[in-house]
Amino acid sequence: MRKQTLVISVASVLLAGSPAAAAPAPDPTAFVTTMIDKFNGGDTKAWVAAQEDNTYIVDDFGPHVWTGHGSAQRWLDDYMKMSKAEGISGGRVDYGKPIATDTGPETTYLVLPSTYRFVQKGAKMASTGSLTFVIKHDGKDMKIASWTFSGSTAAPDK
Hints:
There is one protein chain. The longest helix has 15 residues, at 2-16. Residues 5-21 have low confidence and may be disordered. The protein is built from four helices and eight strands, in the order αααββαββββββ. By secondary structure, the chain is an alpha+beta fold. The chain has helices at 2-16, 28-40, 44-49, 71-85, and strands spanning 51-58, 65-66, 88-95, 100-103, 107-120, 123-138, 141-151, 155-156.
């Protein structure tokens, strides 16, 4: 009986400390790609909400840099204004598997190959490049702290 109690006690201690018993690690890639998919589907509120209030954003249209309070919403507003002014519709971001990722205890650096596709004055256009993200995470909570689109000059999409 003592031997059985000892085995059960040891097994309980080992299982309690095992990775299977711990909460699953956050998946920053899935978080970011889900948010891109929401943006592509028109859920811009989810896209903005996924970002910190002071997300640092660099993009290929002016003013090129957005920082400080409400930066994600200001980027979205500027994106919409630019799209309207340049006759752009149907903007979407296609992405591939990460080409770089580095996850630490509080942040993840993630680079996704990407193609920004859109229609401009009736012509299908594309700009290929990459999206680089810094994601902050605390347990299961994640927020985009920074992102950059680096891409080629848009050309006809074939």
